[in-house]
Amino acid sequence: RMETLDFYFEVSHFLDIYERVDENYVVYSQLLNDGDFMLKLFCVNPARNLRQCMQKGRSTILFSATLLPIQYYKKLLGGEPSDYEVYAKSTFDERKKALLIANDVTSKYSRRSEGEFLRIAEYIYNMVRQRHGNYMVFLPSHLFLEQVYRCFIERYYDAGFMECIVQEDHMSEAMREAFLLRFQESNVCYPSGDAIVDAGDAQGSILIGFCVMGGIFSEGIDLKRDSLIGAIIVGTGIPQVGCERQLLKEYFDAQGENGFDYAYRYPGMNKVLQSAGRVIRTAEDIGVVALLDERFLEPQYRRMFPREWSQYEVVNVSGIAGRLERFWNEWL
Hints:
Number of helices: 10
Structural class: alpha/beta
Helix content: 25-40%
Strand content: 15-25%
Order of helices and strands: HEEHHEHEHEHEEHHEHEH
Strand order of the largest sheet: 5-6-4-7-8-3-9
């Protein structure tokens, strides 16, 4: 009986969508790895459906800290040209956040190598050794995370004053809570300086969480004050090339838009903004955001920066430590 009911609801759901299919849908089929055949009604542009839903109400407010670029989201979420849009001024002091962009590293597929992973690991070490506290490193994928984590452990890890925790591929609710609890328990920052090499009695004074960008720890968590003092974001967050991404690109190219932006660059930048937003949660917070990819210096990425990112500094792997030392000395 339950199997029949499940099948009935699946078919009903499919038919309901089928009645909505128009020029905003792409219908495609695919032979799956297990031999099954799939037919999908893929909504490439949800604007019309969302607009119909919102018109049933008197008004709708869409609110997020990452609705950038705002015109992209306005079109995609069913907004009309006459709809009101507000970019609220941030209440945070921009000087309390050091925004650094690396000009000598990238996560491009063509550049992924042992040397690049080692350089990223060196960036992480040069950042965390300037100020003991809690950091999160956001990486493009679990595979990329494993490579960088291995390089960091082999080259820079010291159990005397460091603790590294890693986001696993599949985590239960209890495992997620335990992961975040480590940041809330280890929220005391220690002075920086050359004495770090003699900090054998400061067990766990540096906590580094290795996470996947766009995953469960890059949004919806609230680590205030010293619970998190730095986010290291590796790469531009661009999704992997796939069937549906290419369908999105082709659709918006045909609409006269930049299909690559819609399918890849905008969703990627959204993940970057979410990850960076973990650091500054209150007006009293002080922290560092490092964007480790030279592509962030290209105009097509800089134009997507929020207004609060107007003050940034370009760094390299050998100079980032000195820049952070000046930043922390200014505020502490």
